[in-house]
Specification:
The chain has a domain of 75 residues. It contains 2 helices and no strands. It starts with a helix and ends in a 13-residue tail after the last helix.
Length: 120
């Protein structure tokens, strides 16, 4: 029993005298470095997201630009074709008018002067 009492007394003394955990400089530096690493990792993840977004935008812009060029080329070809057709029609009309004018000009005769003044 004496032993038990001594053990209890010793255990109580150790429990009361246990040193409180103290913050050392090394622990503070370690915590600071961990926070910096977490911020750096968050920045890297954000940078990856921005990079992937930017690359997607570049890819879409390139595709859109190619489609716009193709549409523009087709449009220019169609305009050229229509201009050639219109020019041919205008030339045909000019030739047709020229022929009619000559025919009409040749068909007319100079009017005679039936009402010419008679000398008194």
């Amino acid at each position: 029993m004496v032993r038990t009492g001594l053990l209890l007394l010793l255990a109580a003394a150790c429990a009361r005298n246990a040193p409180e955990p103290r913050q050392s400089e090394a622990l503070e530096r370690s915590a600071r470095m961990l926070r910096q690493l977490e911020r750096l990792e968050a920045d890297l993840h954000q940078g990856d997201a921005e990079t992937s977004t930017y690359s997607e935008l570049v890819r879409r812009h390139t595709r859109t630009e190619q489609m716009a060029c193709k549409v523009t080329d087709e449009h220019v070809l169609e305009i050229s074709r229509l201009a050639a057709v219109q020019e041919a029609r205008m030339q045909a009309r000019r030739e047709e008018r020229g022929k009619k004018r000559k025919v009409v000009a040749m068909a007319r005769t100079r009017p005679s002067r039936p009402f010419a003044r008679q000398p008194n």
